[in-house]
Each structure stands twice: as C-alpha cells, then as structure tokens.
Known about the structure:
This protein has a single domain, classed as Rossmann fold (3-Layer(aba) Sandwich). Helices cover 35% and strands 17% of the residues. The chain contains 6 helices and 7 strands; from the N terminus they run αβαββββαβαβαα. The strands form 2 sheets. The chain has a 5-stranded parallel sheet, with helices on both faces. It has a two-stranded antiparallel ribbon with strand order 3-4. Helix 4 (108-116) links the parallel strand 6 and strand 7 (120-122). The chain is globular, with a radius of gyration of 14 Å. The mean pLDDT is 95.
Amino acid sequence: MAIEDMDELRKIYEETTTIAVVGASGDERKAAHSIPRYLQRQGFRIIPVNPKGGEILGEKVYERLEDIPEPIDVVDVFRPSEETPPVAQDAVKVGAKVLWLQEGISSDEAERIASEGGLKVVMNRCMGETHYQLRLGPGPRAERQGV
C-alpha cells in the first residue's frame, strides 16, 4: 500500500541521505531537473540515473541503478508509469529503502514488486512539493522564484 500518511512521509525524509533519481534530466525547464536540484540544495545527496550518462547537477550520471557504488535510500522516479515495474525490481536489487514515483506516475505492479521486496512506496506525489508541504523547506516553487 502506497504511503499517504504525512508522519510516515516525514520519517522518510528524516531517514534519507541519498536519493537516486531515475530519469534525471539536464534540461533546467523539466521537473526531472528542478526537483532533484531543489532536494540537493536541501542537503540530500542526489545521484542522477539516465542511460545518456554524463553529468547533471555536478554529479556523475549512472546509466543504471545497479551501477551506483554506494547505498541508496530513495529511488525517485521520473519515468512513465509503464516503465516503473523494472525500476522497482532494480530498486529491490540494490537494497533501496523507498520507491518514490513522482506526481502523475503510479503503477500497481511497481508497488507490488517494491512492497514485496521490503521497500516503502510513495506514488503520484512530488518529492519536492511534499518536502514543502511538511514544512521541511521553502519548496521548489519558492526556489524557482528566487526566494
């Protein structure tokens, strides 16, 4: 069952250091860039995952979750819903604690795979906006406006 309880969501942020961002983008106009940038500025370690490789937000981009050489707390997904079940399988394989599907993204199959693998699951919820809703930071909108 996907997490909706605000106390449980707050606990995820409290227990998170490293966030692997699947579908991270170098395009500053996309949420897959601005949300990880916001989270990075809030003190989280962001590890971009994109088959194109390269560098995003000053961090090396890994082509696959399995290529990341350090522990991952949250796998934050910016990919279409139908692409999330294999991401869930990979998140289980690498020992992540949370599978977080961004706003507009949900998959019963991905939720089942991640839950059966022992991960907490959050779906159809923006990780940056939720951070703001919990009053943990200024929020991505404030950052875009230069506040």
